[in-house]
Write a structure and sequence with these properties.
Layout: H1 2-8, E1 22-27, E2 33-39, E3 42-48, H2 59-71, E4 78-81, E5 88-91, E6 96-97, H3 101-105, H4 109-121, H5 133-147, H6 152-155, H7 158-170, E7 176-178, E8 187-189, E9 194-196, E10 203-205, H8 207-218, H9 222-232, H10 239-265, H11 273-288, H12 293-301
Antiparallel strand pairs: 1-2, 2-3, 3-5, 4-5, 6-8, 7-10, 8-9
Helix pairs in contact: 4-8, 4-9, 5-10, 7-12, 8-10, 10-11, 10-12
């Protein structure tokens, strides 16, 4: 707790508050350490950065992007942010974390999540950073090389990665502000609204990445993917988007498998990251070896800018106000 009190002592909002007056509760997290802080009737979330997260997180961009989404009422109000080390204090959103099978079982979950993502994607070119999955993988491979971790599993699929890269680069779409890590644990459901939190990986990107990543993380099947895309596109889904979604689902598993290797190398005890990595790599290889993989590559390669995700949907009206942080897992 010494680290918690040391961080709170730096935050002007809580300056002078006696430690005995605070209620502190540890929240679940995968890489960072997060705590619910209650002072009188006010509730906050204190995020302390995980080990070596500065190697792959741009904290200045995170703060910039998080404040934009908070002002739009999509995310939590940021009350304090130290870009040097990633310490953040934000308000607590009173609601249910959507992590787990409950989110998957909820019949309207794909549609509700699609509306939130569509709203973010409609902001325009306002995010400070750029998220490129291929650059991210190169960065992760470099980190693993420095850590002395084996990378053979990745090199087994380099040919397929190169094919996906050529297909996606041959059919570029306008970039939009994206969350880039919309797993169920980053959604908070108040019963009326669904909020998206944790903007560590946020940046300008192809909007289909967000939908593909969500589909993988939530365990969506074909019908849930269809509902998600139809909601996102107001019912009119260009067929090539299903192929684009499929490629990003494969890339999502591969990227986060490399991320999992880094967590394992850093001794992160929040999960069994060896099993996590193996599961994602095997699923990735299965998709690459499926009979439909070549067809999806061809469909994306033949796509064009007129089929861009932002062109197939109307902007979703912004919610008013700025509710605040969460009681779920933080990556």
């Amino acid at each position: 707790m010494d680290r918690v009190y040391a961080a709170l002592a730096r935050i002007q909002l809580l300056e002078g508050v006696c430690s005995e007056a605070l209620t502190i509760e540890r929240l679940g997290s995968l890489t960072n350490a997060s705590y619910k802080i209650i002072n009188n009737s006010e509730a906050y979330v204190l995020r302390l950065p995980g080990k070596d997260t500065c190697d792959y997180i741009d904290r200045e961009a995170e703060e910039h992007n998080a404040r934009i989404t908070a002002a739009a009422g999509v995310s939590a109000e940021v009350l304090y942010f130290d870009t040097k080390d990633g310490t953040m204090l934000s308000r607590f959103i009173e609601g249910a974390c959507t992590n787990g099978n409950g989110f998957i079982r909820a019949s309207l979950a794909p549609a509700r999540a699609a509306r939130v993502l569509r709203q973010v994607h409609s902001f325009g070119p306002v995010f400070k950073s750029r998220f490129n999955v291929f650059s991210m993988m190169d960065n992760y491979l470099g980190i693993l090389r420095k850590l002395g971790m084996p990378r053979e599993a990745y090199y087994e699929v380099t040919q397929e990665v190169a094919q996906m890269r050529r297909a996606l680069e041959a059919s570029p779409v306008p970039l939009a502000p994206c969350h880039n890590d919309p797993w169920p644990g980053n959604f908070v459901d108040t019963g009326r609204d669904l909020y998206l939190i944790d903007w560590e990986f946020s940046g300008m990107n192809d909007p289909m990445w967000d939908l593909g990543d969500l589909s993988v993380e939530a365990g969506f099947g074909p019908e849930q993917d269809r509902m998600m895309l139809e909601t996102y596109c107001n019912g009119n889904v260009p067929p090539v988007l299903y192929s684009r979604l499929t490629l990003y689902k494969v890339m999502s598993d591969l990227l986060w498998a490399l991320w999992g290797l880094i967590q394992d190398a850093n001794g992160n005890q929040a999960d069994d990251f060896q099993a996590y990595t193996l599961r994602r790599l095997e699923r990735c290889k299965t998709q690459m070896g499926s009979t439909g993989f070549g067809r999806h590559l061809a469909n994306v390669y033949a796509g064009n800018r007129s089929l861009a995700p932002r062109a197939c949907c109307q902007a979703h009206p912004k919610r008013k106000g700025s509710l605040t942080t969460r009681n779920g897992k933080l990556r």
